[in-house]
Specification:
The N and C termini lie far apart (157 Å). The protein is rod-shaped and about 165 Å long. The chain folds into two domains: 62 residues; 68 residues. It is an all-alpha fold and 179 residues long. It has four helices and no strands.
Length: 179
């Protein structure tokens, strides 16, 4: 036998499919719109055919579909959804807990920092007070008990010479020049 080309086989198959489709569609239309059956159904006499061939085919298809599918078990389905919801709520609860815990830790850290700053400030102020006190004591020691400034003179009193606060020692130079 000769094998035809690809295109020949394709056209033959399409032709055969078209012919069989034309025959089957003509039969289906004839069965659906049969004038004799319509008259019998209208008069109510003769054999009554409660189901048309199309309806019987539809019922067959539904039967096949029901055989292929398993019925849903709603209790198991609801249990699965509850488990998923529970997992999500647990995860959200953990996240909320972590956020609250992080917030508490942040507040505690800020409180500690404020306390440390207060301690540093108090220590600094105390140190400044001590230093000021020491400066004042040094100034008092350097100045002594003598008041500084001009002495008040009476109108009748003779002029007083100002005393030098610290008498300067006599300057002695090393021997220079002739001896």
């Amino acid at each position: 036998m000769n094998k035809g080309s690809f295109w020949d086989d394709t056209f033959e198959k399409a032709l055969e499919a078209g012919q069989s489709m034309a025959k089957s569609s003509a039969k289906q239309i004839k069965q659906t719109f049969s004038p004799l059956q319509m008259i019998k159904n209208a008069l109510g006499g003769g054999e009554s055919n409660p189901q048309s061939p199309m309806e019987s085919k539809m019922k067959e298809m539904q039967g096949k579909k029901e055989m292929g599918n398993t019925p849903l078990d709603f209790s198991k389905l609801q249990e699965k959804y509850q488990n998923q919801d529970k997992a999500k709520t647990d995860m959200l609860r953990q996240r909320l807990f972590q956020m609250v815990k992080g917030g508490d830790e942040k507040i505690m850290m800020e409180k500690k920092q404020k306390e440390e700053e207060e301690k540093r400030r108090i220590a600094y102020e105390e140190h400044e007070r001590k230093r000021n006190k020491q400066d004042q004591q040094r100034m008092m020691q350097q100045s002594g008990n003598e008041p500084q400034g001009k002495e008040r003179q009476s109108v009748l009193a003779p002029k007083k010479k100002k005393r030098a606060q610290n008498p300067s020692p006599i300057e002695i130079k090393p021997s220079t020049g002739k001896q």
